Amino acid sequence: MRNLNLFFIFLILFTILSCDKKSQDVSELDTLRNSSNKKTYPAQQMDSVQAINSITSQKVQDVFDLSSLYIAGNKNTEIDSSIHAQIKFYFYKPDSLTLKPLFKELESLKVKSAKVNNLEVYDVYYKKDTLNFAKFNVEYFDKERKSIGKFDHKSQFILVPAPKKFKKEFKFYFLDFFSKPLNDSIKSGVIK
After folding, report:
1. Source organism's superkingdom (predicted)?
2. What stretches of 127-182 adopt beta strand conformation (E)?
3. I need a labelling partner for 105 at 20 to 30 A (CA). Which of 51, 111, 114, 150 fits?
4. % helix / strand / coil in the chain, to the nearest 5?
5. 79 near 32, Cβ under 8 Å?
6. Nearest Cα to 133, choosing from 74, 180, 185?
7. Which of the 8 DSSP states describes residue 91?
């Protein structure tokens, strides 16, 4: 009888503990809905290459997530306009051609989602200027979550000082999301 009571107590405790798990997962839509490029980063944290890599990786992934969500829509609804406006916040001076290469690639491959891998930040010294670039590999997935392929890309970004009283902070912006080589000696269309 005593063993039976212990068994029931153990069973009740086990049931209570197993049912008490609360999911802390945030849905992908909630993450995208709340993402923007309004966050600034303190200067003392920006001295680390790892911090710049982490921030850049996050921003690249955000742009791909928002872009794939945008192209999946009708592009004429209020939510689509809102998503498009959010994507533009990630760019320093966005115009109508800024996002065109990204959207064109995602639409032509029928991308549903993307995963950024192997991101590396580096500097290029060009005519007395230091240019910030990130090269990365992105894997595209279709609506069945099957891999479409992996593609190498390069993006140029800038860290703009956003001074606050007694603090120096930076804002992150992309200048060009799919950057082309700086010194391309062969003009397009000229092949012999």
Report:
1. Bacteria
2. 129-141, 147-161, 169-176
3. 51
4. 35, 30, 35
5. no
6. 180
7. B
Close Cβ partners of 141 (under 8 Å, ≥ 6 residues apart): 111, 112, 113, 114, 115, 147, 148
Q: What whole-number distance in Å separates Cα of residue 42 and Cα of residue 166? A: 11
Q: For residues 29 and 35, what is the distance between their CA atoms, to the nearest angstrom?
A: 10
State the angle between helix axes of 78-88 and 49-72 in degrees (0 to 180), rounded to the nearest 10.
160
Q: Looking at residue 192, what is its pLDDT?
A: 44
Whole-angstrom Cα Rg for the chain: 23
Contact 99, 82 (CB under 8 A): no
Checking if the pLDDT of 24 tops 60, the result is no
Cα–Cα distance, 79 to 85 (Å, whole number): 10
77 token code pair? 């609804």
pLDDT in tens, 37-82: 666 555 554 456 777 888 899 999 999 999 999 998 888 888 888 9
What are the contacts of 156-159 at 24+ separation with CB within 8 A? 156/131, 156/132, 157/56, 157/59, 157/132, 157/133, 158/92, 158/132, 159/46, 159/52, 159/132
Residue type, 44: Q
